[in-house]
């Protein structure tokens, strides 16, 4: 049976195959140079096709403090403990509640290192994740997290830290909980202090007036 052969189809097929191979090769070498995709917020895996390393991460996460009021800000730094050999090229950091990996809380402010960081929307909430904006090598990154103000709760810092396409540590959990107290208790405490101050003033006035009249 005679089969027709169209050279244009062969050229198009070869071109498409080459394009797919180049795309795959680019992805294999560079991963996500402009930041982690929003789809990684749940599993925290960068999707490089490689397994996360189980060894201790060569990066230290420094949290300014672990107890803050609602809407308060804390500074967070990620620093290489081996800056000459283990520079940082990428990261993804999210605040979650213990046992709940499908929600993100608070918002991030990348202003302290805006040349290297940007925020992303996790689970449909803008600004709830922070990631790299380029794949340049860095020895440290700094940013702020703004706590929610609607309720008192404990939060966990989840981080994925990337050295290279084949070398990364996924879903590291900061060992200490971030404890947030909403502003409602603070407002009640302030009101109570004001009432006590007023009572003291009334008492002083009640005692002082008779003494002055003697």
Q: Describe it for me?
A:
With 214 residues, this protein is α+β, with helices and mostly antiparallel strands. The chain has a single domain (32-186), classed as Immunoglobulin-like. The chain has two helices and eleven strands. Strands 2, 4, 6, 7, 9, 10 and 11 form a seven-stranded mixed β-sheet that branches. A hairpin with a 2-residue loop joins strand 9 and strand 10 (167-173). The longest helix has 31 residues, at 183-213. The chain is elongated. Mean pLDDT is 84; it is low at 18-30.
Question: What are the defining features of this structure?
Answer:
Immunoglobulin-like; alpha+beta; elongated; 2 helices; 214 residues; four-stranded antiparallel beta sheet; seven-stranded mixed beta sheet
Share of helix, binned: 25-40%
Tell me about the biggest sheet? 7 strands, mixed
Which shape, going by the Cα principal axes?
A: elongated
Order of helices and strands: HEEEEEEEEEEEH
Q: pLDDT under 50 segments (min length 5)?
A: 18-30
Kindly state the number of beta strands: 11
CATH superfamily: Reeler domain
Number of domains: 1
pLDDT averaged residue by residue: 84
| Content-based structural category | alpha+beta
**Based on the structure given, which CATH architecture is correct?**
Sandwich
């Amino acid at each position: 049976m005679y089969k027709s052969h169209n050279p244009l189809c062969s050229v198009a097929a070869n071109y498409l195959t080459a394009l797919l191979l180049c795309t795959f090769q680019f992805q294999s070498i560079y991963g996500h140079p402009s930041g982690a995709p929003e789809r990684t917020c749940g599993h925290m895996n960068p999707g490089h096709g490689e397994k996360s390393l189980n060894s201790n991460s060569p990066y230290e996460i420094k949290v300014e403090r672990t107890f803050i009021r609602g809407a308060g800000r804390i500074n967070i730094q990620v620093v290489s403990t081996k800056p000459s050999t283990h520079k940082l090229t990428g990261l993804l950091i999210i605040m979650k509640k213990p046992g709940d990996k499908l929600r993100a809380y608070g918002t991030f402010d990348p202003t302290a290192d805006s040349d290297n960081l940007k925020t992303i929307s996790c689970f449909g909430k803008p600004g709830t994740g922070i990631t790299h904006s380029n794949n340049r090598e860095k020895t440290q990154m700094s940013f702020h997290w703004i706590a929610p103000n609607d309720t008192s709760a404990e939060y966990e810092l989840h981080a994925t830290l990337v050295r290279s396409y084949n070398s990364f540590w996924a879903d590291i959990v900061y060992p200490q909980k971030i404890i947030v107290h909403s502003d409602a208790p603070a407002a009640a405490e302030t009101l109570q202090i004001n009432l006590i101050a007023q009572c003291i003033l009334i008492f002083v006035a009640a005692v002082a007036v008779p003494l002055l009249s003697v």
